[in-house]
Amino acid sequence: GLYHIPMFAADLLGLLSTIGTGKIHLVGISLGGCIAYQFAVDYLKSVKTLTIVNSIPSVNQVSDAMQETFVNRVDIIHKFGMRWMAEGLSESLFPYPEQINLRNTMVERWTENDPQAYIEAFRSLLSWSVEDHLGSIDIPTLIISSDQDTFPVELKQVYARSMPDAEMVVIPDAHHFLPMEKPAEFNEALLAFIERHT
User: Fold this and answer.
1) pLDDT tens digits, residue range 167-196?
2) Staple 58 to which of 29, 50, 129, 147, CB 3.0 to 4.6 Å?
3) Are the CB atoms for 165 and 141 separated by under 8 Å?
4) Structural domain containing residue 108
5) For residue 71, what are the CA distances in angstroms to 16, 74, 124, 148?
6) Alpha carbons within 13 A on the beta-carbon side of 177
7) Residues 54, 134 within the same domain
8) Are residues 139 and 105 in the same domain?
C-alpha cells in the first residue's frame, strides 16, 4: 500500500529530530495509538512515557465481525463518500441527544479528510501488528480506555499485562473519541500520569 505504520512512526521521528525535543511524553489516540505503539517499539530511547488511548497494538485479535466492519468501511467510502460514513459513525460514537454539537463537529472534521489517504491509512492497519514486541516497551505506559470503546476493554487489559510497566484507566460512559466526549476526565487521567513521571 501507499502507507504503512512504521513509515508514520519514522515521520514522527523526523519531526521530533527537526524540532529537537529530546525525550517525549508520547500520546496516541486511535490510529495515532497504533503509530505510538510502533514508535515506542522502533525508537524507545526517544520516549519518556507512552500513553495509548482507545487503541490496540494489532487488529489480529479483534473479532471477525469487527474485522469485517473495517473492511466494509473502505467500501462505504468508495460508494458513499466520507460525509455519509461520518454521519453514520457519529450517531454511534456520540449517541446522546445533547451531543449534537459533537456529532456535527465530528462530521465536519471527518469530511475534510482526503478519502484516498484515509483508505490507505486504514488499510495499513489491517496487516499491521506490534503485539509480539510489547514486552520490549519497558517505559511507564498508560492505557486509557473508554468503557464503550470500539475495541473491548478486556482486550486492552491483556495488552497492558504484557507490558513491563503499564497501568490502565477506564473512563465510564464514554465512546471512541474520548478526548472530545469527556475532556475533563481524559485530561485528569493523562496529566496525573505525566506529572508522576516528569
Assistant:
1) 999 999 999 999 999 999 999 999 999 999
2) 129
3) yes
4) 64-122
5) 33, 6, 12, 21
6) 18
7) yes
8) no
